[in-house]
Amino acid sequence: MKRVLYLSMAILAFSCNSKTESGISANYTIKGDTILIPGNSNFNGKIKTALVGTTPYRHKRSASGIVKAIPNNYAQIATPFSGRVIRSFVRLGQRIAVNAPVFEISAPSFFDAGKAYYQAKQEMQLAEKNLRRQEDLLKNGVGVQKDLEESEVTFELSKRDFENSVASLNVFHVNPAEMILGQPLIVRSPIAGEVIADNIVIGQYVRDDAGPIALVAELSKVWVVGQVKEKDINSIHESDEVEIEAAGVPGLMITGVVYHISEMLDESTRSVEVFIECENKGHNLKPGMYATVQFTEKADNSILIPLSAVLQMEENSFVFVKTKGNGFVKRMIQPAGTDGDRTIVKSGLSGGDEIVTEGAFYLLEAK
Questions:
Q1: Which CATH architecture has domain 60-104+187-296?
Q2: The pLDDT of residue 119
Q3: Ranges of residues in the chain whose predicted pLDDT is under 70
C-alpha cells in the first residue's frame, strides 16, 4: 500500500513539475518493457549515461589464513630415555647449527645401551680371533672343518649384534668410537634454527614419553595456510604470487608464492587449504598469526561500471540500458565483485552498451 501511494505521489509531482503554458507534458511513456523519455521531459538533464567498455583487469580474491612453521624447518626436541637433566647448552632465542647440543641427560637406559655396545664389540673381537685361529689350524693340517664353520657362524652373529648396537647409538647422534662408558647422553638438534621454546630445567627428571622440552625452528621462511572457497579454487594455481597482510603487522604487505593446493576439501567449511611460502627474514610473520591472503588472477578484459549504475531488486542486480529513440530498458546483470567505486560485471553487458550512470531512480519510479 505504501509503495502504491509513493508511486502515485511521485508521478503526480513529476506531472505537476512538467506544466507548460500549453498544458501538461508527460515525463515518460511506457511501451512494453521500454521507458520512452520525450524531448521536453523534466527527466532530461537529470539522467546521465555512459558507454560500456572493456579494460584489462586483474581479478582479486581474499581469503583468511594462518601462519605456520614449515614442518621440515621445525623440530620438537624430547629425551629418548627417562633420566635426569644435568646440563643445558641453549637459551631462548639462540640460533644453533645442525647437530648442536641442546641438553645433557643422565639416563640408566643410555648407560645400558653403551654397555651393550662394548659387550657386543668385545664378543665380536673374540669371535674374530677364534675364526682366525681356526683358519690357521686348518691351513696347517691340525684343524677341523666343522670347528671352522662354527667359528664363522659365531663371528657373523656377533658382528651383526655389534652393528645393531652401533646403529642404536647413531640414532642419538652418538659416535661410538668417542663414547666413554657411563657418560651422560647429549641430545642434539636435528636442524639449524632458533630456539623458540626452552623448558629445560636442570635437575628435572624427564620420562621418555614426556613431550618436547625444547623447540627449534627456522623461521626465515614460513607457510601461510589460506582457506579458499570451493567456487574460487579453479582460479588459483601453484607458483602464483599472492599478497599477505598479517593481523599483527597491519599495513605491511608481504609477497608469497603458492606452494601447494590441498587435494582434500573440508566439507564443513567447503574450502580447500592453500599453502603459501613466504620469505620471513624480518620475522614479521609468527606461527599462529592470523593473516589475510589476496590472490590476484592474470589480467583479462573485463567490464567495470560505476556503482551508481547498479540497482537492486531483491537478490537480483540490474541496470538501465539506453535504446534507440531515447528509450531505456531494464537489464539483469551478474556482478563479480567490486573494486573501489566500480562494479565488476560477470555477465549481462557487452562493450558498446550505453547505460544509465546517474538518475536511474527516476526510471525506477517509472516502472
A1: Beta Barrel (2.40)
A2: 92
A3: 1-26, 299, 366-367
Q: Are 192 and 27 in contact (CB under 8 A)?
A: no
pLDDT at residue number 53: 87
Degrees to nearest 5, angle at CA 356 with 353 and 362: 145
Q: For residue 256, which of 221, 283, 287 has the smallest C-alpha distance?
A: 221
Judge whether 225 and 246 are in contact, CB under 8 Å: no
Q: What are phi and psi of 166, to 5 degrees?
A: -65, -45
Cell 681356526 belongs to 134
Which residues make beta-bridge pairs with 338?
343
- SS3 sequence of the chain: CHHHHHHHHHHHHHHHHCEECCEECCCCEEECCEEECCCCCCCCCCCEEEECCEEEECCEEEEEEEEEECHHHEEEECCCCCEEEEEECCCCCCEECCCCEEEEEECHHHHHHHHHHHHHHHHHHHHHHHHHHHHHHHHCCCCCHHHHHHHHHHHHHHHHHHHHHHHHHHCCCCCHHHCCCCCCEEEECCCCEEEEEECCCCCCEECCCCCCCEEEECCCEEEEEEEEEHHHHHHCCCCCEEEEEECCCCCCEEEEEEEEEEEEEECCCCEEEEEEEEECCCCCCCCCCEEEEEEECCCEEEEEEEHHHCEEECCEEEEEEEECCCEEEEEEEEEEEEECCEEEEEECCCCCCEEEEECHHHHHHHC
- How much is the pLDDT for 335? 87
Whether 181 and 115 have beta carbons less than 8 Å apart is answered as yes
For residue 70, count other CB atoms closer than 10 A to its CB.
18
Question: Which one is the CATH code of 108-183: 1.10.287, 1.10.8, 3.30.70, 1.20.120?
Answer: 1.10.287
Mention the CATH class of domain 2-57+300-366: mainly beta
Cell matching residue 62 = 581474499
